[in-house]
Sequence to fold (258 residues):
Amino acid sequence: MKIATYNVNGVNGRLNVLLRWLEETAPDVVCLQELKAPQGKFPLKAINDAGYNAVWHGQKQWNGVAILARNMEIEEITRTLPGDEDDSQSRYIEVLIGGIVIACLYLPNGNPAPGPKLEYKMLWFKRLAKRAAILLSLNTPVILAGDFNVMPAELDVYKPERWVKDALFLPEVRKSFAELAAQGWTDAIRSLYPDEVIYTFWDYFRNAYTRNAGLRIDHFLLSPQVAKKLKSASVDRHVRGWEKTSDHAPVWIEIDPL
Fold:
């Protein structure tokens, strides 16, 4: 099974890019972030015509997450991250596909830091950690996938000294990611490529993609049941070079049957 995560940076504005990539790579499951579309404006017909079912949680102008599945049913579990009834931002959706619990998430950016946006990010991280611990306790296959807005280590960022005050690289943010992983999750990319420079995001400015001045902020965290079935993982870096593309590239894993 091939499972991908992709911050599409506007599902309608980048629809041609998304459909081209789906046709080229044919992943079985896709987690999308940053739809930037209200619930009623998700391009369901185009997604269906491409061969995918979908569940999504939209939000006008910002955020938004979706999960697509090819030739498989999607059973929605929740479309909110527990822990804050007043949180109206569309950043989390959790489903069951083929016996695997898959959570698609778009963790807050947190900038400018310090400030209320960083505080929201840290509280969101705590809620995610609490939910992740519950999912692990179920002893069932679970995948946490999406844009975590965290570079876990210096290897994950071009010129890390330039990011020391950024909310994506602050010590407390990296610590939260490390503590989350330490619950028993496996970082798919790093488990296969512990020492390689691998990025998933390149800014639109300063010719970042051509210079490979990137960040690794899109991650797969795998429960033990999934981690032992991990076959391969990679980034479809070339998609970032397409015309009118997202500033993120798709990331994917392949797992053996569970």
User: Anything to note?
Assistant: Residues 18 and 41 are 16 Å apart (CA to CA). The chain has one domain: 2-255. The first strand starts at residue 2 and ends at 7.
